[in-house]
Target: Glycosyl hydrolase family 10 protein
Amino acid sequence: MQYLPFFCPLLLLLFLGSSLVLSYDGPLYDSSAYRECKLLPEEPLYNGGILKDQDPNLLRSILDNGDQVSYPTFLLQNLTQGNKYCFSVWIKINNADSALVRASLVTEETTLSCIGTVIAKQGCWSFLKGGFVLTSSPKLSELNLQDSAGRDIDIEIASASLQPFTEEQWSLNQQTKINKARKRAVIIHVSDRHGAKLQGAAITVEQVSKDFPFGSAIAKTIIGNSRYQKWFTERFNAAVFENELKWDATEPTPGQVNYTIPDQMLKFVRANQIITRGHNIFWENPKSSPKWILNLTSPDLQSAVTSRIQSLMSRYKEEFIHWDVSNEMLHFDFYEQKLGPNATLQFFTKAHQIDPLATLFMNEYNVVETCNDDNSTVDTYISRMIELKQGGVTMDGIGLQGHFDVPNPPLMRAILDKLATLGLPIWLTEVDISKQFSKESQAIYLEEVLREGFSHPAVNGMILWTAIRQNSCYQMCLTDNDFNNLPAGDTVDKLLKEWQTGILEGKTNEHGSYSFHGFLGEYKVTAKYDNKTVISTFSCKSLPEAPLYNGGSIKNQTQQIHNNLSLSRTAVKSPAFVLYNLTGNTMYSFSSWITINGTDSAVIKASLTTDNNTFNCMGTVSAKLGCWSFLKGGFVMESPSNYALIYFQNLDGGQINITVSSASLQPFTDQQWRINQQLLIETERKRMATLHVSDVDGNRLQGATIVVEQVSRDFPFGSAIAQTILGNLPYQNWFFERFNAAVFEDELKWYSTEPQPGIVNYTTPDQMLEFVRRNQIIARGHNIFWENPNFTPSWVRNLTGPELQTAVKFRIQSLMNHYKNEFIHWDVDNEMLHYNFYEQRLGPNASLQFFETAQKSDPLARLFMNEFNVLETCDDRNSTVDAYISRLGELGKGGVSMDGIGLEGHFTVPNPPLIRAVLDKLATLGLPIWLTEVDISKSLDQETQARYLEAVLREGFSHPSINGIMLWTALHPYGCYQMCLTDNNFQNLPAGNVVDTLLKEWQTGAVEGQTDDHGSFSFDGFLGEYNVTVNYGNRTANSSFTLCRDDETKHWNIQLQS
Model:
């Protein structure tokens, strides 16, 4: 039996389409958040919402101690009951170094003492984000901003915003987030072994496991309790032991360590392949620590904690996916009082040394539940985490307990937004609702919390704190003692059902395809046809930012004024930097902030002249009058230079005043550059995995033989193919032995499919499509239209406007209907930055209309701009990085859903620092980037082609925003467009050797070993699908799993049957 792999974001372009988008015309939630204290505030969210153009009042009040304080306030009229209100504001204080500023709301009937906080500072602006929900509709309300300590400090505010959402709007925003972060569109293609698509095949799709960890605490009461065990395993895929791993449970008296109970509980979770969090190593609350340690001397306590962490972590190495290392350290500090200020830091360091694959968490209450607790505000949490990381701690996870009274969803979401800026996985670790509420209210509030958590993209898992004890739970139970659901249990079951795809049935369409939107997870797919069954499983700123690398080698260097000839041969003055003693074989990364005077906007180019060479362009930016824009680029020095000059020019040649600030030039040796690439590859293209082997009773098996083999790669790496591959078995074998992606070089282009008007012939691309189907290779659709008139059918070039409109309509409908659901991408309007054939004849909206029609015709395909000289050089004014971004923005404003960035990559001499800089800027758009037509100019010899190709491929593969790479190396009898990988006998040329070397380097291959004394085997693998064979004695088990992109170690349980 074969399973469809996990639907994870990095598999999106291999198996999946775009996310499902709901039709919604209300306000879209803005998840922007900022941790930095900025020189100037950002613009208000939602353009200010209902606070737009409203200035705050300054109120004075008398405190209980008689002191008078003044503070800014907004007077709000006619707020609506039940609406969710999202509040944000930028704050600066003037007569204190720092202050915790709290926002509160006072109405005629109630006071919400905290709706958001921020630690504000003197001299810069800090971002407060929060919100509230009202249970009544007050006619007048006050929204106040005050120092939480009651001091009379000067609070300045700017860019305030208050945006209301109805309950329906809030829910639709949640669902939009869920559809984007937790689901994917999937297309299943069914064909026979020859690649012929099969219409009418019966499809059954069943989700067999969920990707999102959702679980509960369990207690020792689950041991031997088959009803509890059955109830739990039918619902949850994650667990945590409520108390049984805590120090007072495992060592109640000094030296008497007993792990019997957690061992038995671990056997249960192993036997049922449930991932488990380790909670906890230490608890900073002395009331929850073993009584016998409270009066120990510092040396004795140090000895005891060393023994505790060594014993616990060694025994359970690689068993738990997380460890809560020092629980609730924001509220308590028992160990730091006793052992010194670095005690917690030492705990984390030691834990990482013993179990380096476990994700180490801070775990804290009252961070997400409320903002009324000064000990655990969101900024306090962030500050403590940064302190630990600066101390050298490997801190991998954000644990938010979630013991709620009345949840405040807008506040909860705002706090998650701010924590998400840390870029670490967030877990809700102990979710429940206070027992002061009725069971019905608990259920209502629980649903609010769970929906908020599941819909937030930064939340990686949720654990309920609902372990069943003898007669109760800590605060909230899901069932009674007979495992009959209580209202909270009904809520959980409802959400589990809602958040799972379940079983889907249908038939393939005329394209041999079946589509659905599914939650991330593992699926089993059954296809039946003719009694045969197959089972398969960016912005202009008011002030420049600080220089990168603190300025690098031009730190503290004063720029000079350089006289040079402009591009129009007119003498102009330019700011310049004089550089001495540049080294050879060195990559130089350059950046600066630029503003201009004398014109509204201009494309500014940075150039370099050395004593033996000139780099016409090493970076560009579209600069504007009155604000600062960021230029980033670089150059490669192959030989040393004693003297060089960096200078700036207006690409149009006009005389304008260019001002440069925060310039930086950072050198990297070849070795340093390669190490940086490899670090990115290890982070973005690989993941640690731990395989746990046990018998059916959960007993871990030491010494089991493991063989792990990567059977498919997650990263799409392919080449163009031509019709020459048809019937050419050596070409076909050579291709599919290497590549998992393809694009047709010319065969889909209009001049190929309709060389004469009305005579459409798809025979050749159909046959090529059968080849890629048969070998399960994904294919890009290239292209629908080409703006270059030289590559437009000759009969099209002389058509009148109405005739051309008819022809393009027929072309797009015919092509897209014929190949609906067949191609993962479509290059809709090729090279539109350089050419405008259709817009000249059909009007300025022609391209926009092409994209709109393509999206309607094939909504699951990703639509790409595809362009040359964006990445290859910055000397082409038509296709600078900012020109590309601007064109994308124009299409987006016109209503086009633009899904992808296509960069052709036809290089002569590649400039890796410039490539990386351009990719960095494009990555700010948050869209998948593909290198779509990579080759090296045939003006170079084959060995040089190979060397430059390797540089380009390594740069692409190591950049986190690159989602796929396609070579432009289709083979013809005469050769290839610019560069071939092989000769006509499929013997590698130097470029082919480079490709084969990199394919081998970027694949895990086969890994063999034995399970350790914990029954575990760990390895670091490239993302993709794996088969595993386990042998233990005379028992064998086979399994398969997928490594998706994630910061956490992948844990996979394998059971050996008796």
